[in-house]
Amino acid sequence: MSDILAGLNEQQRQAVTTTEGFIRVIAGAGSGKTRALSHRFAYLVNDIGIMPANILCVTFTNKSANEMKQRIRRLTGDSDTGYISTFHSFCVAVLQEDINTVQYPKNFLVLDNADIDAMLKIIYEERGLTLRHMTFSKARDMIEIRKIFKDPEYYEHMIALPLDKLQQRYLDAVEPDDIIFWGYLYQQKKCFSLDYNDLIKYVLYIFSVNEVIRLKWQKRLEYIMIDEYQDIDELQYRLMKVLCAYHQNLFIVGDPDQTIYTWRGASVWYILNFDKEFSNVRTIMMMTNYRSTPQIVAVANSLIGNNKHRIKKDLLPVLPDDTKVVYHHAKTAEAEAKWIVAEIKQLVANGIKLGDIAILYRAHYISRMLEEVLLKEEVPYKIYSGVQFFNRMEIKDALSYLRLIAYKDDLSFLRIANVPKRNIGERRMKFLQDYAMQNQCSLYSALERTIDSEIFKSTKAQQFVALIERFSAGYQGLPVSELLNAVLDQSGYEVMLRTEGSQERLDNLAELKQSVYEYEISCGEECTLEDYLAHVALLTNTDALSGQNSVKLMTVHTAKGLEFLHVFLCGLAEGVFPSRKTATLEGMEEERRLAFVAFTRAPKALFITDAEGRNFDGSHRYPSRFIFNVDKALLVYTNELDDSLVYETNWNITSSEKMLAAQASGPVFKPGDRIVHSILGSGAVIDIEYDKAAYVIKFDDLGTMRKINFKAKLEAESAF
Ligand code: ATP
Ligand code: MG
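^ thats the input. predicted complex w/ adenosine-5'-triphosphate below
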């Protein structure tokens, strides 16, 4: 038997060796789906002789893509790993090859949030908007919602309108929303940049208008495999459907009990109806859980058994017995955090590595108290959220140097032209902006063209342009790591940090250099600067998930697909988890699935905790219903719960579940009611279509009415 099949169970072997046609694996948490997927890749390459470049393997995060690349490299011994990536990164690969079909250059720019903010800043300044009109994060949301829901064809304008026409739309706009939206599209086109929302749209568009290109990609991708399929959304689904149409080899794995992104447009419908959407589908089920102890598996089964809308399936444990899951109730958030940290110290005293411990929570704000106590007790920790590594000032600056060399774009120019100080301050920048506006050119070329004028006499603009020109002329063929070293050195950036005594920032730069170096190794010989920049733009905070000597803190969403030997799930209180925003039965079931994802991350030990206190609306905090959802005999309660807490909570459960059950069978709102939708915002119920089980709603921000499913997440407006 092939080595690749050793270490797999019968179903996994079937999944690996059934290479042709449409195959669906529906399997529980920790049952070896991701393992089957990566072994299948290796099997295709090693045993069948398929070229890695003809396989697309889609993972949910960049981190799992990297892990899979490493695994596959180990299994196949080949450095070429084909397309193992997230949907977004795959789209970048398509666009790098074919974006010129829509008259964009191949070295288009991929924007992250910080870049978008920098563009917003330009727009706000030009048009006299302030953060009181709209914060940047609200503006980003507004743009996203507009791109997804209100102006889904926006990209056709971006592609079709020449820059000056786009600029005119921006200048003609009057309402802040319009100014921001058109200003942003204009800024985007100006430097040929795309944000996450654009990537799939552009690819689908190119495929729809250019059959030759579509066929090229369809033919190239002989085998397509997708992990975490239960969380696929409509655009991703459309993309995948186009891609597999030629060879008709599609392999998907997922667990409907782990659908946790419906709030962002994902739908479990796609995995459940896979057999109706495609022909001759073969379905493989796997229920053995290899990850966790029987004690943890039992708790997870007990919890998810409370969901009504699911196909009933229990995970079967195989690992030997270990300790029971512990539940601790604390009087205050501080006491909860102290208890957790004391337990962690105990684990460490017993020889457990800090890197094998994770603390998970429903929402970021819960981490504050934990951080305080961890700091006080001097327990090293790392948060995988909040300010992301790649958004730190020094990292952005360093990357801006690289970007300016490759693209000479305005964003990077604005960021680093005067860092370190070159005496190109506000007045001179304004001069360049005016010149660029009048002459329809970039800021960098404005500087090049006016460099001899009086205004730049007492500046270091000459040296700056010389530096960038020197690197622009010579960077091709140079490893990115060398380029980065050289530019940080010759630009005076590192010297500046050293003079400032910013050791932490220098350390971060060292870490960046290390990550570039690792990237180069991972992608083999052909690693261009442009590849690297596109890669970095798509990284998220979890991608830096290493750190052997610190406790990992993250939200449950972030922990999806991962495992940590010892898991603490904290803040398991009503109003926190389930979130107080949960208003429908569907919503409550998604919260429960999220708790299920949290429980099933732990192979060895699981601790769940909650604390009394107040919610944002002033209500008292009770232990979460999810604790009482678990058979009491399966948990060790560290302290007996005060009856009032249990009583109140039980009351709470029945009343809200009653409300939720009512909602599942019919409408809860009536015409005239004001409601809030988590994505579309506020609106009024106009009518009810019972036959379609839908409300007809006029949203305040939308021109036309929308039909919204009874089951959608709606709340009464006054509840906010
Ligand atoms: P999730 O639903 O959380 O994504 P999953 O189904 O993808 O989980 P994996 O991450 O592939 O599960 O596997 C879970 C754990 O079980 C891993 O540590 C993996 O190495 C181990 N494992 C998977 N299959 C087997 C097997 N046949 N024998 C022994 N261990 C296995
Ligand atoms: Mg997995």
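DSSP finds 30 helices and 22 strands in the chain.
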